[in-house]
C-alpha cells in the first residue's frame, strides 16, 4: 500500500528519511510529500497549495493510500480525507488533532516577515522533546523551514461529511490514549468525536518519533495500513 507521509510544521520531506526504509522493508511504498513553502523555497505558499500537493499524491496513487499527518499536518491529512473520502483507505495522525472547520490551520507562534519561524526548543521542553538528544535537536533546528504565514493562518474548510467514515488511527506519542480520549470527550476535536472508526495506538516517544523512534513508528504505520 502507498503510505503518504506529511511532516508537521517546519519540517520538509527529509524528516521521514529514517522511516522510509523501514516501511519499504515491511512491504509498503512510502511517499514523503514535499509541501509548498516547506522544502521548495516557496515562501508565498498557502494552505490551499499544501493541500493541492497532498491531493496530487492521493490522485497519483494506484490504489487507496493511507494518509499520514504529523502534528499540525494531521489537519492536512484530514483535509485530504474530506476532499477524497472515497479514495483514501485511512488516515493516521501522529501527535496531532485536526483543526475544526473555520479555524486557523496552525496559528501557534509569532509570525515575522511573513513567515512563522521555528521558535526554538523552549516551548517543547518536557514530554515533547525528552527523548531527543542534543545532536538530534541541533539537526532538526538546523533544517527547520519557516512556515509561510498564509499556511499557518490559512482557514480550514471541511465540506464533505463522508470524511467521518474514513478510518482514523490516532498515534499517541508524548501523550497517552487515555489522555487523548479525555480531550476528545471534552470537545477539543469535534470531528474525531464523530469518526465512525477511531483507534488509538500508544507510542513511547516524544513529539518527533520519526527522528527518535523511526522503526517503531514504521511498524505502527504498517499495522494501520494493514488494518
Would you tell me the overall average pLDDT?
A: 96
Counted beta strands: 8
Strand % is 5-15%
Q: Could you give the order of strands across the largest sheet?
A: 2-1-3-4-7-8
The computed structural class is alpha/beta
Name the CATH superfamily assignment.
Alpha/Beta hydrolase fold, catalytic domain
Kindly provide the name of the CATH class.
Alpha Beta
CATH architectural grouping: 3-Layer(aba) Sandwich
Instruction: Quickly count the helices.
Output: 8
Straight-line N-to-C gap: 11 Å
The stretches of 5 or more residues where confidence is low (pLDDT under 50) are none
**Tertiary shape:** globular
Return Rg in Å.
16 Å
CATH topology-level name: Rossmann fold
Largest sheet: 6 strands, parallel
Oligomerization state of this entry?
single chain
* Total number of domains: 1
Share of helical residues: 25-40%
The ordered H/E elements are: EHEHEHEEHEHEHEHH
What report would you give on this structure?
With 227 residues, the chain is α/β, with parallel strands linked by helices. The chain has one domain: 3-Layer(aba) Sandwich (Rossmann fold), CATH 3.40.50. It has helices at residues 20-25, 47-60, 74-83, 134-143, 149-152, 177-185, 209-212, 214-226, and strands at 2-6, 29-32, 66-70, 90-94, 115-116, 147-148, 168-172, 198-202. The chain has a six-stranded parallel sheet, sandwiched between helices. Strands 5-6 form a two-stranded antiparallel ribbon. Strand 1, helix 1 (20-25) and strand 2 (29-32) form a beta-alpha-beta unit. Helix 2 packs across helix 3. The N and C termini lie close together (11 Å). GO terms for molecular function: hydrolase activity. Residues 3-219 form the AB hydrolase-1 domain. Keywords: Hydrolase. InterPro entries: AB_hydrolase_1, AB_hydrolase_fold, Sec-Metab_Biosynth_Hydrolase. Pfam families: Abhydrolase_6.
Amino acid at each position: 500500500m502507498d503510505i503518504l507521509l506529511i511532516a508537521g510544521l517546519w519540517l520538509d520531506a527529509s524528516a521521514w528519511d529514517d522511516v522510509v526504509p523501514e516501511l519499504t522493508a515491511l512491504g509498503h511504498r512510502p511517499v514523503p510529500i514535499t509541501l509548498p513553502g516547506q522544502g521548495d523555497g516557496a515562501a508565498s505558499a498557502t494552505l490551499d497549495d499544501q493541500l493541492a500537493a497532498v491531493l496530487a499524491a492521493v490522485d497519483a496513487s494506484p490504489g487507496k493510500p493511507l494518509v499520514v499527518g504529523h502534528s499540525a499536518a494531521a489537519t492536512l491529512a484530514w483535509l485530504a480525507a474530506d476532499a477524497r473520502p472515497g479514495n483514501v483507505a485511512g488516515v493516521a495522525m501522529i501527535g496531532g488533532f485536526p483543526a475544526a472547520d473555520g479555524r486557523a490551520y496552525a496559528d501557534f507562534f509569532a509570525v515575522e516577515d511573513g513567515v512563522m519561524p521555528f521558535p526554538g526548543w523552549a516551548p517543547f521542553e518536557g514530554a515533547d522533546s525528552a527523548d531527543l538528544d542534543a545532536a538530534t535537536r541541533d539537526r532538526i533546528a538546523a533544517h527547520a523551514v519557516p512556515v509561510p504565514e498564509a499556511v499557518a493562518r490559512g482557514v480550514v474548510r471541511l465540506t464533505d461529511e463522508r470524511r467521518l467514515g474514513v478510518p482514523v488511527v490516532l498515534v499517541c506519542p508524548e501523550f497517552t490514549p487515555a489522555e487523548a480520549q479525555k480531550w476528545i470527550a471534552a470537545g477539543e476535536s469535534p470531528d474525531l468525536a464523530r469518526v465512525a472508526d477511531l483507534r488509538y495506538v500508544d507510542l513511547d516517544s516524544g513529539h518527533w518519533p520519526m527522528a527518535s523512534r523511526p522503526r517503531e513508528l514504521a511498524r505502527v504505520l504498517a499495522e494501520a495500513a494493514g488494518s
